[in-house]
Design brief:
Number of strands: 0
Structural class: mainly alpha
Oligomer: single chain
Largest sheet: none
Order of helices and strands: HHH
Shape: elongated
Number of domains: 1
């Protein structure tokens, strides 16, 4: 396998992993909100229990999504240097904001200073 195929395969696996975990991690807060709203409107404690369990999963999925996104930013720079030479200024800002958001959330949830 030549280097180009290996680089494309590595990037494809990393991107697929990131898309799955980041999408679920972003959609779970909406599902938790709906579940808590149903608990408040019906009074059924099962909805509150469901929202609390999804909250734990959301924390894990957010962390995994942020870390896999950070790995993707390194892969873009290492595996596709010519592309990043031209597009790095555009792509760099969202990746830096993602890293900032990850550490801000970690500080908020865990009190990391």
């Amino acid at each position: 396998m030549d280097n180009l195929i290996a680089a494309r395969s590595q990037m494809a696996i990393s991107l697929a992993f990131h898309i799955i975990f980041a999408t679920i991690g972003v959609s779970l807060p909406l599902m938790m909100t709906i579940s808590e709203w149903r608990w408040r409107s019906t009074g059924d404690p099962a909805y509150l229990l469901l929202a609390k369990r999804w909250a734990k999963g959301t924390t894990i999925l957010f962390a995994v999504g942020a870390i896999s996104g950070t790995a993707l930013s390194f892969e873009l720079g290492l595996l596709w240097p010519r592309f990043m030479q031209y597009a790095g200024a555009v792509i760099g800002m969202p990746f830096s904001l993602e890293g900032f958001a990850f550490f801000t959330e970690a500080n908020h949830y865990y009190g990391v200073e």
